[in-house]
Amino acid sequence: MSISTTGLHHVTAIGGNPQRNADFYLRTLGLRLVKTTVNFDDPGTYHLYYGDAEGRPGTLMTFFPWDGVPDGRRGTGQATTTAFSVPANSIGWWQQHLEAAGVRTSRITNSDEEDALSFQDPDGLGLALVAHPQGDPRDPWDTPLVPGEHAIRGLHSVTMTVAKEDATAATLVDDLGLRFVHQDGNRLRFAAGDGGPGALVDVQVSPDAPRGLVAGGTVHHIAWRVPDDATQLAWREELVGKGYDVTSILDRQYFHSIYFREPGGVLQEIATDAPGFGVDEPLLELGRALKLPPWLEPKREEIQEGLPELDLPDENNPEVAEILAERR
């Protein structure tokens, strides 16, 4: 493989009620809503992006949330757990914080000696918080509800569940440029670049598990980082040459994307780092207004009328968050 990813760009999932989704990820998990927009392929649905202060690649969890979405089923051919990175001394704090919010947790230590909490969001999406022994240098989003010393640093890893190991492993290594790290029972760990939080994927091999159904409470796709358009184009040509069915390059306004399925069925995206979330609004105002791409702007009134209202907490405004943090 001549081109390799440096790590995860984002994970996109399907949620239920948009307000409930925002309340959980902003208030309970303490992330920042860095972009309020719509699903460009289905403008009647929000697309909400959560991340750090600037929405840097590797910190992003995004959702297509809408009321009445049927429940999905976790199984093979899916990313079944999305893990966030937290400081090594914060797992106890998070356990108390989540349980106080009515979220049931399970505490585990994995084979890499990472202390972790597993839990689900209000729609049943599988999540985890992981404390990497070597720490995570990324700056957190600091809010009064989740102070900076305990706050999420970004994505840690994603777990993909597949029925068979070989073809998926080959795709990760030969076509995405990851390296095999180790195997623990039916779980294989792969790393991009130097490894560490934000550059890890675990493959859980479950031949007897049911086939997953992508709907409410499940991951739609995982995205890997690529630095620029030229590298993405070269990568697309290489993947097509190997026989993958790859989409054309799609303009997602804040990055450019291509998509393909690995042999185990998990939808993969390769997304550019640029142009980023400041392309259509100032850093201080990220996420506070509905943003539409130029080709949907003429339908703004119609789109807004079809979307439910979304009440964002004051903590999503950096100026207010700073004042509230000083009052702690």
TrEMBL record:
Keywords: Dioxygenase, Oxidoreductase. GO terms for molecular function: dioxygenase activity. The keyword Transmembrane does not apply. Residues 7-132, 154-273 form the VOC domain. The keyword Chaperone does not apply. InterPro entries: Extradiol_RC_dioxygenase, Glyas_Bleomycin-R_OHBP_Dase, Glyas_Fos-R_dOase_dom, VOC_core. Pfam families: Glyoxalase. PANTHER family: RING-CLEAVING DIOXYGENASE MHQE-RELATED. This is Ring-cleaving dioxygenase.
